[in-house]
Amino acid sequence: MAPKRPTGAGAFPKAVESPAPNRPDPDALYAALDLGTNSCRMLIAQPKGSGFHVVDSFSKSVQLGAGLERTERLSRTSMDRTIQALRICQQKIKRNKVRRMRLVATEACRRAHNAREFIRDVKRETGLTLEIIQPEEEARLAVISCAPLVSTKTEQLLVVDIGGGSTELVWIDLKSVPRRDRPSAIMRLHAGFHPSESPFPAAKVVDWISVPLGVATLRDQFNDVEDDAARFALMSWYFEEQLADFVPYRNEPTRERFQIVGTSGTVTTVAASHLGLKRYDRTKVDGLRMTSEQIDKVIRTYLDLGPQGRRRDPRIGEDRHALIMSGSAILQALLRCWPTNRLSVADRGLREGLLYAQMSADGVLEDGPF
Q1: Is 217 among the domain residues?
Q2: Residue 101 near residue 34, CB atoms below 8 Å
Q3: Over the stretch 83-139, which tens digit does the pLDDT of each residue have?
Q4: What are phi and psi of 361, to 5 degrees?
Q5: What tens digit of pLDDT does each residue of 254-281 get?
Q6: Which residue range(s) make up the domain with 254?
Q7: How many helices and strands, by DSSP H and E, does the chain display?
Q8: What is the Cβ-side half-sphere exposure of residue 230, based on CA atoms within 13 angstroms?
Q9: What's the whole-model pTM score?
Q10: 217 with 268, same domain?
Q11: Same domain flag for 272 and 316
Q12: Locate the Ppx/GppA phosphatase N-terminal domain: which residues (predicted)?
């Protein structure tokens, strides 16, 4: 039975708060798991006011999609490695006695011919039921997780989620929404990109696209190019070519009252490098605003370092150095199309969107938007 809805309604959730100090009531816990092409990530949280407290988490690079570009199948090694990580998630869910959860898989499982076999293996080995979600839902969940970072001055918004196997872009028009209601209007997109009649001011989704290229799949396509700078240039231009069908306001100037929100390991790594952080600090990165020029400067630094220099750079980290240039190529392509001085860095994404969606559906968030 879902917890009772607290009193109060009308505002959007606050940013995710720090872990809860006391052992929570299992009846109040929710789990969200995001199994992507490269990583397996999970959050366990309890509602707290209009946000939530994280009580447990898990994140590991599993490289589920390794070799997928060539074989169109998940390899036995990748599946075994991922199932080992999912066993840890299952143990955390069991230890915390979580009963409300949503466990989703994205691009690698959408594309692999043997994905159903893998899902059955996961169920048999761990007891977890994975759900393969479609690109539109993945994009919606990423968008609502970023709503608290949307400026009330923003009239045109581009949300970009750079994943391991795909990249989602959603362009939203907020001109008809009163300023103070704009973040709340973004949250209401949880109901769909083209919701039915609503008494609330509506955010208009002008266009959206899911490009089947992410940091892992783009890297794999150009692995045979030996020259570092040439490989980067080819990846960036190739990704831009995939945006031909995404044409919101192409002929209109975009800098005025335009904001990009970027959510991905690439964007947060670029932000950490810009800040000179040798130890990652989410509180300094999440919500940071960067200009196109600042981002280009960091990417040029990555190119100057070369593969060995990037491997040793503490700002990039061992888990990210092999993927940072393909991610940077995607980011640079986007900024060629839509230069901005208001890119907001989001250290949040699918897991947070899954949690907000579950809690909103159960009505357990104070001042919840739904």
Answers
A1: yes
A2: no
A3: 999 999 999 999 999 999 999 999 999 999 999 999 999 999 999 999 999 999 999
A4: -65, -35
A5: 567 889 999 989 999 999 999 999 888 9
A6: 147-346
A7: 13, 11
A8: 6
A9: 0.84
A10: yes
A11: yes
A12: 44-359
